[in-house]
Amino acid sequence: MFPKNAWYVAALPDEIPADKPLGRTICDERIAFFRDADGRVAAVEDFCPHRGAPMSLGKVCGGRLQCGYHGLEMDRDGKTVAMPAQRVRGFPAVRRYAVEERHGFIWLWPGDAALATPDTIPDLAWARQSDWAFGGGVFHVKCDYRLMIDNLMDLTHETYVHSTSIGQKEIDEAPPVTRVDGDRVVTEREMHGVMPPPFWQAGLRANGLPDDQPVDRWQKCRFVAPSNVLIDVGVALAGKGGFDAPAELKANGIVVDFITPETATTHWYFWGLARHFKADDAALTAATRERQGQIFSEDMEMLERQQLNLSAHPQRALLKLNIDAGGVQARKIIERLCAEEAAGVATKEVA
Amino acid sequence: MFPKNAWYVAALPDEIPADKPLGRTICDERIAFFRDADGRVAAVEDFCPHRGAPMSLGKVCGGRLQCGYHGLEMDRDGKTVAMPAQRVRGFPAVRRYAVEERHGFIWLWPGDAALATPDTIPDLAWARQSDWAFGGGVFHVKCDYRLMIDNLMDLTHETYVHSTSIGQKEIDEAPPVTRVDGDRVVTEREMHGVMPPPFWQAGLRANGLPDDQPVDRWQKCRFVAPSNVLIDVGVALAGKGGFDAPAELKANGIVVDFITPETATTHWYFWGLARHFKADDAALTAATRERQGQIFSEDMEMLERQQLNLSAHPQRALLKLNIDAGGVQARKIIERLCAEEAAGVATKEVA
Amino acid sequence: MFPKNAWYVAALPDEIPADKPLGRTICDERIAFFRDADGRVAAVEDFCPHRGAPMSLGKVCGGRLQCGYHGLEMDRDGKTVAMPAQRVRGFPAVRRYAVEERHGFIWLWPGDAALATPDTIPDLAWARQSDWAFGGGVFHVKCDYRLMIDNLMDLTHETYVHSTSIGQKEIDEAPPVTRVDGDRVVTEREMHGVMPPPFWQAGLRANGLPDDQPVDRWQKCRFVAPSNVLIDVGVALAGKGGFDAPAELKANGIVVDFITPETATTHWYFWGLARHFKADDAALTAATRERQGQIFSEDMEMLERQQLNLSAHPQRALLKLNIDAGGVQARKIIERLCAEEAAGVATKEVA
């Protein structure tokens, strides 16, 4: 269950070089991404109208996507514009998708391109500002994308899944506060005067701060429909203002999570950290990215096995505790968006 | 097709250490096994009532099973007894299973725990007696567990599948005698004055006997419902009484086969040999176990490919020859037990 | 969709040694191939009538196929002729298939053996003549066999899939001419005064001809029902008669493609080249076979991914351009043969 008339992160920019398409399924749509002559990303159905070959096995020539089987060439609108020794005017176009490159990500609208609204792509201020540094990657995960949203909206799992890096007992002991605002959900907690866990010890050291002193730690998970979770995270020396402490007394950033359905039970997980200290330290960015990749990969087995359990027991009710409120509210928004989308389709069909 | 109100071997004791649960599916039930504070094995549904995570990915703390996702703790009855910062009294319990550790195996009753009768766990005398030594292991096999019962109740296959170790032409030539006694089937053969095959030559040598003399060899396959096959096997110097020969003139033991359904077309095969000579020779036990593991793995491809053939031809009748009588009778008992179990359920529902 | 009353290449002769059977599925039939005491190939159902074991896991003893599970022995007609300590007269026979070894291939008739007509096995003149040399192999391909027929009846794909070996732009630019004659289709093109691509440069050199001169190149694809494609290919020094040029002025041969359904969406692809120059140069045959294997393996990903695309969009219409005429006509013949076969079965059932 996912809305299709929405923006999803579909790829990282360097996954789509100038000369090669990228084939990727997003929300059950098989799509070939490529760059046109201006370097603008295009997205078309990954299906050659000639004989059904995947266009993504071809190459890009002069900004056109060339089928690797018999040479049909397609433009960014999915229209065939050339094929050796053929008149192509009557060839059926394949579907084109609305796609935008912005803030360091490729955003896809898998639904009706006519409804796509580029101005609703989330504004990622940190992606535009030089005092932030971003590093991240993408995982393929064999579970419903909503299990990943649940995961990220309830960080008590850090204590168990990531016990050697970001987990600490005090997370469980600090009840989260959750509130809903339209298509957004925020669930947050603060921990005062706790010892920093290893990941944040390293962060403090990297920012020139002591790693053996009590800190105030915060986690502010912000869900934005359809499936983005951006989490303010950080530690400040205890009693200096926490989240609002001066920059030189804290280490902080935003955990970036773009969670994109592939099918009903698989998804693409774009993860990363926007770091708000030592932004010009590329080695630190690389090392942090490496470490985060290790930590976040710890969730994979749990999520994929949870999916198998839920698929085996589809009717079974789960608990909805206070710690689950973030995920529960996010799912309600998703359900409402899906219902609205279905109703919209129904309305159109009646009209 | 398998009865669920019955004892099955589910694991070897060292598969369940004190600090880690074991996840294993038995008779279509996904189960987490763990040891409580007394070291007693417990078996609960492998499903966290919080969010459906597999409990078997967690750990054991103070005899409680702790979910590895968000820290819910469960006791041996499947009741949640703790969770950080939560009141757990109203949490639904998950199913608990009757389980016993006895004779060096973990026995599970996958059906209604209220009906479990620990006194019907088979008594394995050799497991209690110091003049016997046991070595064994477990295989996962992708076929109906009844194909393994058939396999073990018709040892003419040794001549073909195990031609270089325990097979010999005289097995085929000695028709078996089969008899049924309640939920038990015995099918047996004797071979008089034959040369021992390589496995038994090694056995004779290990017991200080010549390996180049004719022997009397016996195979007494004992099926016990639901799916245990214990086989008296051995060789004695020819003419000295065979099975009843004095211990110093023979090499003998019991092939142990506990055959536990995982699903309709897969099973866990617990195999081993209880050896009745040189019981204190641990090196011999290890070497024999290694060799038996090699020999028994020769059956795997045949059984799994047989399953594929039968799945492709589900209606096809098979032959039931005299050599098949053991398996045929065992299947009849299984079918009767399943019918009784279904009738019992029906009776209860009427009541 | 494939006719079953037809001859298909099922194996290469050396895939069936004297002592070992070969298990292979042809047109959804699981078959065990073996050689009888005269070395003649036999084909029987790969299903032991005793307990359903695959006969292909057994061995061949004195020209009989012996089951590797319990020793049942079968003759070339699928009749059980022996089993240790058993009377086998009443054993049901398994199905036997008509099979012939001819022209260096094993030909199977997967349908009704009573209808098999060995005289309709294609005559491969090159396989009998000493001035031709053959080298080839077999691939397992996960797509409908008709996609491979399409592939071979439209060689414009060489320009894209095989751009570094046999592809060249002029293929696309030379429209093919297609004609149908009963159960045969020919689609052909000629290219005059073109530079030879690398594969043919090597061919010219091997035949003592210059590799840097313009040539006339030809491709005559001959489809013969049910699924054989034999392609006259070659290059001659330009203006010397092309296909009809004297042998010393050209390098030519026949690309051999026997395309045998395994299931609806998988097939066995027997490929090779019958070379019509330097026929006694075994090293050249080996090197050419190696190179052809590399080139033809370039098609695999495209075909298998095309199959996935078509399976995901079963209703979608494909284009039928002039370059597709060969495949389109071949498919029409296959459809007619299947319809005739179905009608024949219906007629028989009425009778």
Automatic annotation (TrEMBL), chains A, B, C:
EC number(s) given by UniProt: 1.14.-.-
Translocase in keyword set: no
Sorted UniProt keywords: 2Fe-2S, Iron, Iron-sulfur, Metal-binding, Oxidoreductase
Coiled-coil stretches: none
Domain Rieske residue range list: 7-108
Keyword Chloroplast: no
A Pfam family hit: Rieske
Lineage: superkingdom: Bacteria
Enzyme class: oxidoreductase
Molecular function via GO: 2 iron, 2 sulfur cluster binding; dioxygenase activity; metal ion binding
Name used for this protein in its record: Aromatic ring-hydroxylating oxygenase subunit alpha
Species whose genome carries this gene: Derxia gummosa DSM 723
